[in-house]
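Whiteboard transcription, Tuesday session. T.W. wrote the structure tokens on the left side:
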């Protein structure tokens, strides 16, 4: 397992639409293991493959308090189960240090293949619903700041670029 570099905005790869995975094999599991390690290293709760530069429809997530219950979503499909939406203050490892409210449906159905390639279906509510919809957006080339006003988005991108430059200067 290895920690991979996380792409940050405005990297054009974050705009790519990720491609379906043909099957869950050892190579894909190695990618998913790296993604989990990368997510833990960055203190995140979710990560999409495109955030480490791989345009495959793969998401990892861990919403547990002890950070020891990773979940894997391959070729996920989500269906909103309600029109009720609620704002939640979101952040993203590709937009470090920026947080803002995004409205999303509060309950969705998630269908996906798991780490072993088994087909699964779950109902997501609360933080799980927010997180899976945020990560699904990454698979479509959408980052949460795309929902904000142009002014806020431009300000966020500038802040991230400054942060990335500062980090590069310290190593
Ligand atoms: Ni994100």
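and on the right, the sequence the group agreed on:
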């Amino acid at each position: 397992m290895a920690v991979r570099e996380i792409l940050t905005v405005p990297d054009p790869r974050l705009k790519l639409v990720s491609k379906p995975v043909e099957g869950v094999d050892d190579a894909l599991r190695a990618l998913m293991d790296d993604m989990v390690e990368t997510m833990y290293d960055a203190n995140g709760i979710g990560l999409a493959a495109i955030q480490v530069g791989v345009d495959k429809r793969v998401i990892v997530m861990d919403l547990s308090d002890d950070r020891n219950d990773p979940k894997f979503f391959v070729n996920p499909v989500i269906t909103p189960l309600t029109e009720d939406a609620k704002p939640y203050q979101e952040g993203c490892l590709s937009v470090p240090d920026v947080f803002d409210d995004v409205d999303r449906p509060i309950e969705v159905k998630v269908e996906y293949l798991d780490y072993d390639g088994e087909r699964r279906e779950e109902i997501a509510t609360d933080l799980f619903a927010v997180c899976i919809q945020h990560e699904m957006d990454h698979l479509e080339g959408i980052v949460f700041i795309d929902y904000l006003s142009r002014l806020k988005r431009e300000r966020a991108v500038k802040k991230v670029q400054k942060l990335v430059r500062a980090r590069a200067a310290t190593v």
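Someone added at the bottom: The helical segments are 26-41, 126-139, 150-170.
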